[in-house]
Prior knowledge:
By secondary structure, the chain is α+β, with helices and mostly antiparallel strands. The chain is built from 10 helices and 5 strands.
Amino acid sequence: MSGRRIDRERLADLVLATVVGALGTAVAAFDDGTTALDHVLVVLASAALAFHRTAPRAVLAVATVLGTAYVVHAHPGPLSALPVLGAVHTAARVGHRAVAAAGSAVFLAGYVATGPGTQNAAERAGLLAGWFLCAVVTGLADRNWQAYLRQTEQRALEAERTREEAALRRAGEERLRIARELHDSLTHSISIVKLQAGVAVHLARKRGDEVPPALLAIQEAGGEAMRELRSALQVLRADEPAGTPALLVERARAAGLAVDLTVTGDERPLPRALDRAAYRIVQEALTNAARHAGPAKVRVRIDYGTPNTRQSTGELTIEVDDDGAADPARPPVVGTGLTGMYERVSALGGTLRAAPRAEGGFSVRARLPLGETA
């Protein structure tokens, strides 16, 4: 429950107690023989209603005892039952039907016992009994309505979750179909081109002829295309990232890249979409550093921030810096990797900066909001 909603409910409870107290005090002021003690009893019984959400049974007990003491002492009219009626309604609304009925019976017994045995007193007692019955019934009706609303909301959430799961399943099936099409069409063609270029280079060298640079370029481009295609197929076939940013750093170190990892803030499990995005951002940044930075040092910093106990839990910050050969005077061409990072960060409402550093090297900085607590 959000803090704003709690504040609204507290304000509503205070308004309820104030209105009931004002009405009870005004009615008591017009009754003959009302004393200061009677006013105190009315005010205290009404003030107890401000706590009906946290302690409904205690509020009903306090309102019943004080209200009964008031009618026994002052013999007021039927409107003196307002605080007890409010307490009976709120108790019945949260399911305490027996307690609500018992409170109603105690107050009615005190009201009838202290009143004169006339027809007028009987009519008033009957009127009060009807009021209390209505308070119990409306409390139960409100309880059933709230339960219906919760069930409706739960069904809507379940339907939304089912739609999301179906959409994810269809997206996974489409990725697999694309992967199969790419594998069946492009892999074979690129393999033939690479093989033919390799054979031509081998025959030229065997004859002692000079290998044309264009042929070497075709052979190298074919090999690079095959590697890129395999990487793309692995991404398409993978539903979830296999590992963590720390594992990516270990793999990069094993491959010969000098990488330092720093994790700060309150480290904790992340939502699936955010966790996947963080993994892919670190993976792409390390891949780019390995390809383009040369013999450089790479620093990876992940900051989880400090969660706020109210609403916002802050943001996840990912920084990947290297001191490689990137030059601010020559901005890099935005390729598929950087485009994918921008798209992932934008989809989560974050910001991304990927550019050469003024002191040399390349820097990737992503800020991703972590959402709200319940």
